[in-house]
Amino acid sequence: MEYDIIIKNGNIFDGTGNPWIKTDIGIVKDKIKRIGLIKDEGKRIIDADGLIVSPGFVDIHNHSDFTVLAYPNCESNLMQGITTAIVGNCGLTMAPVNPNNIYLLKKYLSPYLIDNYNYNWNWTSFREFYQKVQERNIALNLAPLAGHGTIRIAVKGFDKSQPSEREMQEMKRLLAESLEDGAFGMSSGLTYAPGGYAKKEELHELGRILKEYGRVYSTHLRNYSDNLIEAIQEAIDMAQKNDIPLEISHLNLGEENWGKADNILKEIVKAREKGIEVGCDRYPYTAGSGTIIGLLPLWVFEGGVEKMLERLINYSTRKKIKEELLKKKKNDNCFLGVLKLKDILIANCPLARKYEGMPLEDIIGSSKGDKVYDYFFDFLLKIKGESTVIIYTTNEEDLKITLSNEFTSVMTDSWATSPLESGKPHPRTYGSYPRFFSKYVNKQKILTMAEAIKKVTSQPASIIRLKERGLIKEGFYADIVIFDSAKIKDNATYQAPHQYPSGIYYVIVNGGITVENGNKISTNYGRVLYAT
Asked: pTM of this prediction?
């Protein structure tokens, strides 16, 4: 037999958690045809002697659906070893779209979108959007979720009232349509508008649709600080009542929960002991990221972003917002809750690039009392609310405990971009997986290499129910990463994030070599994957 690609002499970690074996892999077209000693001919031979051969990394929490039309080469994902990205997270997705209020969605998503790219927005359904994505000849596989927040915008805009019976039926119809079109499940973002307007009854109704299709529920919890346990219990209750798998997104522990990681993770263990399938995920950094307007109370967004900006101009509503934010302060050094101005960095700010990389403290000053909020509101008006931010939140020890937990998958919570793009995105955009292996596996040894590879391959693939991916196994798709365990390293920093990692030499997607000798090559072999 002649193979298209033969990988020779590699130390193969198959993704199950088993120790490595030293053997060969034969690839024909897009599948792994043989694992074992191969003496046959190959059109292409890769000598992996001394290198790790792993299944391609499966990023269970990714937002590349926002940017993949502009950046189909997905360099920031691909170069760190990602071959499949689960997109459509946190309840905010590019579809389905209601043409009557599409402007609300576009404006709300604008901090995440590529500002100089014409999206056209010529789709309405989930299927139409992903057909457009596939036409862009993408570099990695995308497995999409349907977003609860986007479905709610399509039906109710940014109306915070609870859905009428007719509106609820329409939301269920849109979710069912998206699942029919191949969505792997539904995500929610309950600290964001409009997802945060939903009560548990609304989510449970949609959970019934997920149960009917046997799909997963992924949630950005309602609270990650003083009510984290209650928020976890709400999500577990949703999964239990509907008998569906649950994935808790980016299990960050705010300062109120520092030192409590073990106790919080026990909530997942207790749920699993009751027969509820629960997992969580985490990126290997102590800082998170989001939009700057996400720092405001949920009610401020009723009617959408334009209405929010109007409220910041109006004296009486501005005063009301300020009073609510002041109630969250723990002391004079804090800005919101336990957040400090110096710990909030501007990441991407299209209307004021000079502020990118700067802490809010350097932009609006360090005034005490309530005056600082007026400066903050004025800044939001100046940039029209269009900025992402990086926020330092998590304790390093809690991060290690979370990453090492058996039910935690490792992810990026990032999106596809390129060194050609402006802004200073979170370094996780380029460095999550190399950082995980370099810092936490090689140096700190919180996990063995076999355990770590399982967390980034078969574990997330099984949660989402990806078929024939996440393992190096005969008959599975040839999504493979080849790297040097001693040299793998993240190079992206908070001030210089647009840097590729080191030590990853080959990335193969659906049997096609896409990264060779550490360099992205011109061919793209990615696909949109659909649940069946």
From this structure: 0.98
Domain layout of the chain by residue ranges: 57-289+393-466, 297-390
Q: What are the angstrom distances between the C-alpha of 178 and each of 201, 289, 364, 485?
A: 21, 28, 43, 40
Helix (H), strand (E), coil (C) string for 335-360: CECCECHHHEEEEECCCCHHHCCCEH
- What are the pLDDT tens digits along the chain (532 aa)? 899 999 999 999 999 999 999 999 999 999 999 999 999 889 999 999 999 999 999 999 999 999 999 999 999 999 999 999 999 999 999 999 999 999 999 999 999 999 889 999 999 999 999 999 999 999 999 999 999 999 999 999 999 999 999 999 999 999 999 999 999 999 999 999 999 999 999 999 999 999 999 999 999 999 999 899 999 999 999 999 999 999 999 999 988 999 999 999 999 999 999 999 999 999 999 999 999 999 999 999 999 999 999 999 999 999 999 999 988 877 677 788 888 899 999 999 999 999 999 999 999 987 667 889 999 999 999 999 999 999 998 899 999 999 999 999 999 999 999 998 889 999 999 999 999 999 999 999 999 999 999 999 999 999 999 999 999 999 999 999 999 999 999 999 999 999 999 999 999 999 999 999 999 998 999 999 999 9
Which CATH number among 3.10.129.10, 3.20.20.140, 3.40.1180.10, 1.25.40.10 corresponds to the domain 57-289+393-466? Answer: 3.20.20.140
Helices (H), 1-120: 75-78, 102-109
**Exposure class string for 272-281: b at 16+ Cβ within 10 A, else e:** eeeebbbbbb
